[in-house]
Amino acid sequence: MADKYVGKRVKRTEDPRLIKGLAHYVDDIGLPGTLHVAFVRSMYAHARITGIDTSEALKVPGVVAVYTGKDIATKIGPVPCAAALPDLKVPDYRVLATDKVLFVGHPIAAVVATDKYAARDAAEILYPGVELEELPAVVSIIDGVPTTPVIHEHFGDNIAYKLTSGEGDIEAAMKAADRIVKQKMIHQRLAPIAMEPRGVLARYFPGEEELTVWSSTQIPHLLRTQLALMIGIPENKLRVITPEVGGGFGSKLNVYAEEALLGWISMQLGKPVKWIESRRENVAATIHGRAQVGTVEVGIKNDGTITGLRYNVVADLGAYHQLLTPAIPTLTGLMLSGAYKIPAIQMNVTGVFTNKMSTDAYRGAGRPEATYVVERVMDVIARELNLDPIEVRRKNFPKADEFPFHTATGLDYDSGDYEAALKKALDLSGYQKLREEQKKARDNGKLIGIGLSSYVEICALGPSQAMPAGGWESATVRIEPTGKVTVLTGASPHGQGQETSFAQIAADEVGVDLNDVTVIHGDTGIVQYGIGTFGSRATAVGGTAVLIAIHKLKEKAAKIAAHMMQCDASRLSFEAGCYSKQEAAAAAVTGKSEPVVPVGEGPAGALHEVPTPTNGRNKITIQEIALAAHIAKELPPDTEPGLSATYFFEPKNFTFPFGTHICVVEIDKDTGETKIIKYVAVDDCGKVINPLLVDGQVHGGIVQSIGQALYEEVVYDEQGQLVTGELMDYALPRASQMPWFDTDRTETPSPVNPLGVKGVGEAGTIGATPAIVNAVVDALSPYGVKHLDMPVRPEAVWRIIRAPEG
Amino acid sequence: MKQAISINVNGVDYPGEVEPRMLLVHYLRDVLGLTGTHVGCETSICGACTILIDGQAVKSCTMFAVQADGSNVTTIEGLAANGNLHPVQEGFWECHGLQCGYCTPGMIMTSTQIIDRNPDPSREEIRHGLEGNLCRCTGYQHIVEAVEYAAKKASA
Fold first, then answer.
1. Cis amide bond preceding A751, omega within 30
2. Do A472-649 and A397-404+411-458+653-805 have the same topology in CATH?
3. Domain over B87-155 is classified CATH 3.10.180.10
4. In chain B, which among 50-69 make CB contacts under 8 A with chain A?
5. Mean pLDDT, rounded, of chain B
6. Do A547 and A755 touch, CB atoms closer than 8 A?
7. Is the complex ipTM more than 0.95?
């Protein structure tokens, strides 16, 4: 493959429609006669439904129908959970509440009206008609498993599951230690807040018996399968289309009650129905992330060597399981070795039900928790032993020649050079100088802190054996009669830029101009089955599927080329999208050559030319072959007409990107406010297809980390009332609060896929959080601070600073 | 009772009748079909719905259509003149100032006001100017670079 496009900062091909306001998100699609749905949702965290009177709502002009839990209880299947854990308790999660509401935002009724204002009016009018008997709520997990009341009475308690994971003799490892370091840590509840809220448009054609569902989702095919099962429509009569998707961050890696309900309502009424989530609904009833409270214990030798690590954790799952809810903490267990050699690791997790929205995969999904635990405790160890945090990390790194590296969490890290990334970050930040400056600043009464994090993450999810519903990804690549290249990918993006990055891969591999490639995704009526975009998997798994599909396609193209030029395929070379006859001797020496630079003026307009007889020609382009393959007059015997290939790529392992982030903060003594004054990130995501996109992923990920470290928290009060229910209360990072990021990379190719890529979508969110908190703790170390919980609010810091004054 | 209004949007006069409670953003999107302006929060926090009214950046999700009666509105669809991208649009494309694209129309409209008011803004001034617009994807750095690019281009 020639690197004409791969590895270059190629501008995104999807951008023109987005910057002109001409793209189509779900709410931008209008179908004639569309009815609008509004939901009546619980304002209580826990209450028994004793009656619903819909009569007043039905009187509102424009209202067509009102549905309650009773109407649909037996007609739509439960919201699915794909996570399979031993002895997992799975509550019956109906799309509308039946006898009890279990969280603020729990849908009780759906109102259908001719316009959205009428639908919202009727929902407001309906609410007083809902008789609720309030019950005490289960809210906090800070002090362990809440025992009363029991949310799902038939389970007997609020424990959804208990699981122990890890390898090695943890008791012996702890005994072998010179000392044990212990730290409790809170990973607060976060809201993903994709800028486009969720939205669904459903249209049923009663004649054709076909249902089309447009949904803002990360997983069109998995959604189709699950909706077919829930609604009871044959899967081949259901088409899911994900138009433009305005961000996901894991929150749209799910199957939601509203998606099934809208499809079902459209089937009842025979009309298109639309629901667009309000931001208030989004904060209350779209999945949350994190929400773990755990204590880590680490056995250490006096030189800083780690002998073992144990993490006892309670995970707040919320009231129900969404698609992957119980599985998220297991990902934490997988990554507890971090970037270190730890002979014995054990995680004991207790997943508990609470009267809150479900937690599930939010960018990083279980790995940020692990990285935070490990990287935070490395600093606690350094403080305990009075060592530089860097020395403790270096002491426990596996060396570059120790890969593949087996961890006591059962993983085999594919490749890595942790020291190289650390060193690059230290050099880039001028670490030694920073420490000197910090000392001077302290002498002048300023509070400066330096924090770092050397993270490893797990990406390219993943081998199917380790995934709930398939870990492969698919691609179909066609060369159309006009020579245009069509790529169909199952990895439907939501901002990542796969239309560009996959086109880069295809253009280089086929040897055509980037503009001749179109990447199609997100329509189950067009694209072969796929898994979706999440877990930093799209390029490593989906991009590889594209690459190998092209290899398959070219095998056929070469046979046709050989036939057309009347020579043996072994005498052909392929370069710049063109097959050439080679002298036998030369071919034997060089083998199949790779395409090289520019093809911009590729013969795309070949359709209107009658193919010239190829006898005696020495060169033929792959685009000419595509035309010949469709006209099918000059094909070798027993060759299928057409030129397309499909490949389903099953990865043999995950990939393990890594890096070091260094953060410098200054704390305002008067206000307690933390300001990030320098941020250096060195990430290694393997081979890079498009550095521009990688930078964007890294920046965005770090900012979500900063949000977690300093600002964001979904707060429920002691009654389970959602306090941060709007963007007025839920503090998202703003441009003026963010620092400039100095980013760089090391490049350690992954041996897991032929592209050598690892994935980068979640690196920032995984690697950055501990670096920031470590910096804040470092800044406050003169006050004896050893740990602070997130988000580190100015008030908490201010109180620490003020405390000595009494 | 419906009220008669006339709003000039992107250079075209649109006379019409609307319910007094209809939000301007819904009028633009649902009545005029200009769906480039997005709704992100309904509380004036996120800025996805930012448009220009008589040259001022305004959040159209918390303004009634009747309040815009008689004004000149520019939406994202009206920014590219004669098919040429506005320097801010160009900057967003060149500098990878967008990922999912949902906040982008609002970001771009706000950015045009930033460089209108200050043709040579510093990075701090750009960040200050973007305070009313939220982006969850980019981390803002590429957006700041996009505005810098646009400022240079516009004053060139």
1. no
2. yes
3. no
4. none
5. 97
6. yes
7. yes
